[in-house]
Amino acid sequence: MAIKILATTTCFRLDIDGTYQLPFMTLCNLKEKREQMFYSEDFVSMVGRAKAYHGFVKYDFAFAEIPFKSGVIFTQNRTLKAIHNSAGFYSDYLKDFFRFLWFVKDNSIGVHEVVAFGESPIPAVSIFSYDAMISNCIGRYEDVTFNEQELKETENILNLFYQNCSAYEFKNNDRIFEDLDISVDDIIDITSSTAHQYNDFNRIERAMSFLNTARGIDFLPYKISMYMPIFETLFIENNQDNFEVTHKVSERVAFYAIDSDSGVKDVGAETKKVFKFVKSAYNIRSRYLHGSKFSDEHIEESKLIKLAREIDNITRAILIKIITRDYDTFKNGRLGEFLGNLVFQPTPPATETDDEISGLP
Fold first, then answer.
1. Under 8 Å CB-to-CB from 325, ≥6 apart: which residues?
2. Is the pLDDT at 164 greater than 50, yes or no?
3. What is the DSSP string of 226-247?
4. pLDDT score of 193
5. pLDDT (tens digit per residue) in 202-241
6. For the residues of 112-171, what is the DSSP string, one character each?
7. Which of 34, 65, 255, 315 could form a disulfide with 342 if both were Cys (CB 3.0 to 4.6 A apart)?
8. Whether the Cβ atoms of residue 347 and residue 268 lie closer than 8 Å to each other
9. How far apart are CA 210 and CA 229, in angstroms?
10. Cα distance between residue 299 and residue 309, in whole Å
11. Which pLDDT belongs to residue 4?
């Protein structure tokens, strides 16, 4: 007997003829592979004909097949538990991988459903469905194609994150089948909102949870607002920076995002631009989260789109730098000296107080 995993996606296109192998799953765009592996009479009857032939076919998909070890004695309860736990494990891993595609380029890709199907002698199925959609940085849902190189880049960044992440424990997928009593709750999801797990997260993990929230929002003022907790989580030292938070965060983000390694010609000018973008985003957040009305200028779509794109790009640059270079600095909680040194740069950002959206560079 084997458990087969089918994961359907939203907005995902694979720029490869065939498959791309991940550590636990295979990405695929071959319709015949999906039909060959899954469309047995038992599978179709359990998931429903409409879902099997219409709900699972729009976008490219991922799959896995895990044989049970010989000598395992199956009962209905043990089979159902193994199928349910395997669906949870593969669901969490694939959600993480798809979230990290954002580090390579903006997208609205997500996991739609993960189906774990056990064949005879005891057919059973477990389905994890996800209603929340991921939008791109301007709040739209558009197909995005990833090639092999981009998928490899995503894997590299995700692996670096996993290696430093306190909330994750690497698990060999064989463990699911060695101990069928493993609970799906043992697999920690970084987006969990429980207070206990949130407190276990380090600074970078908390910032990632806010990023996941922002990317699930398609209303631009709200989306832009939810990027600010990412910056505050990363650049405010707990309760020691309670004054002039907007200015401090804008300044530190600007100096960290733009430095001599950023590849820009004029570091000073680019630093000032980032400073102004973050200040403008803070102004949007202040108005929106305090229930104030927006002026016509503040809700002009073209300006909101420009600001949303810039804030998304700034966030990406910062998180890539943290994960690939400065993880220990941000993780260990002793940021005071590091953050203080950020502002002692040759060319400080602009300090004007006008943070209206009309002041965007």
1. none
2. yes
3. TTHHHHHHHHS-TTS--SSHHH
4. 43
5. 889 999 999 999 999 999 999 999 999 999 999 988 666 6
6. EEEEEEE-TTS-EEEEEE--PPP--TTS----EEE-HHHHHHHHHHHHHHHHH-TT----
7. 255
8. yes
9. 7
10. 15
11. 86
Strands 61-67 and 26-28: antiparallel
Cα angle at 270 between 266 and 273, to 5 degrees? Answer: 150
Inter-residue contact 187 to 90 (CB < 8 Å): no
Closest of 126, 167, 355, 339 to residue 246, by C-alpha: 355
Cα 226–chain centre separation: 14
Cis-peptide into 221, omega within 30 deg: no
Q: Mean pLDDT of all residues in the chain?
A: 81
CA-CA-CA-CA torsion sign (22, 26, 27, 28): positive
For residue 185, the model assigns a pLDDT of 40
Place of tokens 């910032």: 207
The per-residue b/e assignment along 326-361, b for 16 or more CB within 10 angstroms, e otherwise, is: ebeebbeeebeebbeebeebeeebbeeeebebeebe
Residue ranges of the domains in the chain? Answer: 2-186, 202-359
C-alpha R_g of the chain: 23
Selection from 138, 154, 45, 39 nearest residue 99 by Cα: 154
Residue 93 contacts residue 46 (beta carbons within 8 Å) = no
Handedness of CA 103, 104, 109, 112 (dihedral sign): negative
At position 161, the amino acid (one-letter code) is F
Contact 57, 7 (CB under 8 A): no
Over residues 272-297, mean pLDDT:
90
What's the pLDDT at 182?
A: 36
CA 171, 177, 179, 183: dihedral to nearest 10 degrees?
Answer: 70
Q: Report CA-CA distances (Å) from 133 to 106, 158, 205, 216, 299.
A: 14, 21, 21, 6, 23
Sorted by sequence, the CB contacts under 8 Å of residue 138 that are 6+ apart come out as 220, 305, 308, 309
- Quick one: which of 141, 140, 138 has its CA closest to 308? 138
